[in-house]
């Protein structure tokens, strides 16, 4: 047995103090293997985004163990690249400068910054837009820059919080295809939060279904669908069966509030 | 924006009339309905001209005595006279100097303090309630005290402009800083940046367009406080000239200077707006 890339063990998290204290995550246990793509799904309020934010180091937790490659997570850091739903491109910098901003923070020198930034813009097919400002880019393009930025400094894993949630259906499909393609070519450990089951099945190796009151893991699905995956795979019976199964699990998970 | 299609009619009623061109015409008024820029300008200019004409008619037809409201011609002649003998420029430079220094001191202090209390809760706890308290004290009430403390020279003018703008600026800049998206700060933290760098590289540049807007708005108030300070105690400046003119019933000078102050305010505001468009053009504010 090798050490998992990410280990989450016995994680608890509550918000508030005193009588208004509510537990949002209870006894979360799961591991991510190296280069595994895992999605967290569940109804709103199940704590999936909170969990991702804790793994990113942006929020504290009450109890449990959290480690990357065996080293405990104590604070945010460059070993985890984060893609937020809200794009988070800095509006006063161009697409290229936004990526360079991250690379500079990671300690790369000026020449390397430029080269790596352009290379990653190419990866997300945005070479033509390197010198455009975020206000001149569409939502999908902005999120591609954000993904390029998170990949550019070579983090050990990528954390994505409903990255395509704000996009229209057509753009979302294009982004899913692009992400699958990049992932299949370059391989990376990804923790992906979404409420779109089709998206989760299409992208993931494994799907973790969370339930509410308090947030906990209800069920895990392995996605045994062959790669490379292209859009047509969504029409296959195996895909649709699995999608139905996950939907059912989410419905059941959200029907059982506070039973502890 | 087109009119509603005709409602479906029952079998007994006549066939719906075709929508006439009249009914389909684009709406030219209503809440939020845009109008052409030329039309906007035309209406704005018409209001100024209308008011000017009313003024001219009221004085020309002698509805009011010239000592209360002199004619536009009399005001223009008086201002031209003061401009030729140099009085206007002396007053103008004295006032411009005072507002520049007073406003710069206020801004130079309010920006760092506003950023600090907008970012750190303990700084906010220490400063915000105090500033909020002082903010409600009328500036006018500080005038006698300011003369007692700083005499009647320029320092007293700086002080009044400072009291009038600084406390408002601090609170508005704090608000500008709080509007920086939380995810921007999250981004900085996931890149492993220390707080100091998140502040200088993310928070401040992100809040800058808002801060600029705060400066523009507070500069307008600064003019008011400047004139107030000069009205009460001064030996030069636009406000001083207004007080002196009142003593000699030179209503034309008073009105001329008041109009001039309006024009100066308008010009500084437009300059600030133009600079905003240049400075932050890439952020899509100019649309």
Count the domains of chain B.
Answer: 2
Radius of gyration of chain B: 27 Å
* Biggest contact: A-B, 25 and 20 residues
Average predicted local confidence, pLDDT of chain B: 90
CATH superfamily of the largest domain in chain A: P-loop containing nucleotide triphosphate hydrolases
Would you tell me the structural class of the helices and strands of chain A? alpha/beta
Number of helices of chain A: 7
CATH topology of the largest domain in chain A: Rossmann fold
Q: How far do the termini of chain B sit from each other?
A: 22 Å
Q: What is the CATH topology of the largest domain in chain B?
A: MetI-like fold
Q: What is the chain-wise order of helices and strands of chain B?
A: HHHHHHHHHHH
Q: What is the CA–CA distance across the termini of chain A?
A: 33 Å
Total separate domains of chain A: 2
State the fourth-level CATH superfamily of the largest domain in chain B: MetI-like
CATH domain class name of the largest domain in chain B: Mainly Alpha
């Amino acid at each position: 047995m090798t050490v998992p890339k990410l280990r989450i063990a016995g994680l608890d998290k509550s918000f508030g103090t005193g009588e208004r204290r509510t537990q949002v995550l209870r006894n979360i246990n799961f591991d991510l293997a190296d280069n595994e793509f895992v999605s967290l799904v569940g109804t709103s309020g199940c704590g999936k985004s909170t969990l991702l934010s804790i793994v990113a180091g942006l929020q504290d937790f009450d109890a449990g163990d959290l480690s990357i490659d065996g080293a405990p997570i104590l604070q945010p850091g460059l070993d985890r690249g984060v893609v937020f739903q809200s794009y988070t491109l800095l509006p006063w910098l161009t697409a290229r400068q936004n990526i360079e901003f991250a690379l500079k923070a990671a300690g790369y020198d000026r020449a390397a910054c430029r080269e790596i930034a352009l290379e990653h813009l190419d990866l997300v097919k945005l070479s033509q837009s390197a010198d455009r400002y975020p206000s001149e880019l569409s939502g999908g393009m902005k999120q591609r820059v954000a993904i390029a930025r998170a990949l550019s400094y070579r983090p050990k894993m990528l954390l994505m919080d409903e990255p395509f949630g704000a996009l229209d259906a057509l753009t979302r499909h294009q982004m899913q295809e692009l992400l699958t393609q990049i992932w299949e070519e370059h391989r990376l450990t990804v923790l992906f939060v979404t409420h779109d089951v089709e998206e989760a099945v299409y992208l993931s190796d494994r799907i973790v279904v969370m339930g509410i009151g308090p947030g906990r893991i209800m069920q895990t699905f392995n996605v045994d669908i062959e790669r490379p995956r292209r859009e047509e795979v969504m029409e296959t019976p195996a895909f649709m069966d699995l999608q139905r199964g996950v939907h059912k699990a989410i419905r059941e998970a959200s029907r059982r509030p506070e039973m502890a | 924006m087109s009119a509603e299609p005709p409602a479906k009619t029952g079998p007994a009623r006549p066939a719906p009339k075709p929508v006439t061109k009249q009914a389909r015409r684009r709406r030219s008024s209503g809440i939020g309905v845009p109008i052409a820029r030329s039309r906007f300008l035309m209406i704005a200019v018409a209001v100024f001209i209308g008011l000017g004409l009313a003024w001219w008619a009221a004085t020309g037809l002698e509805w009011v005595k010239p000592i209360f409201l002199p004619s536009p011609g009399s005001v223009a002649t008086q201002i031209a006279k003061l401009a030729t003998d140099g009085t206007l420029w002396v007053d103008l430079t004295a006032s411009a100097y005072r507002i520049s220094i007073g406003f710069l001191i206020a801004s130079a202090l309010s920006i760092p303090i506003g950023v600090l209390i907008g970012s750190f809760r303990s700084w906010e706890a220490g400063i915000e309630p105090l500033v909020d308290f002082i903010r409600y004290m009328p500036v006018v009430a500080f005038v006698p005290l300011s003369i007692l403390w700083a005499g009647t020279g320029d320092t007293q003018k700086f002080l009044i402009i400072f009291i009038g703008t600084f406390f408002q600026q601090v609170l508005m800049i704090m608000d500008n800083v709080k509007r920086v998206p939380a995810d921007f700060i999250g981004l900085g933290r996931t890149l492993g940046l220390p707080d100091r760098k998140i502040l200088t590289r993310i928070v401040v540049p992100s809040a800058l367009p808002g801060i600029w807007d705060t400066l523009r708005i507070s500069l307008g108030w600064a003019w008011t406080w400047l004139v107030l300070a000069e009205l009460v105690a001064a030996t030069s400046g636009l406000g001083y000239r207004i007080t002196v003119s009142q003593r000699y019933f030179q209503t034309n000078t008073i009105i001329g200077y008041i109009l001039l102050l309006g024009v100066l305010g308008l010009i500084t505001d437009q300059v600030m707006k133009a600079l905003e468009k240049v400075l932050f053009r890439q952020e899509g504010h100019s649309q």
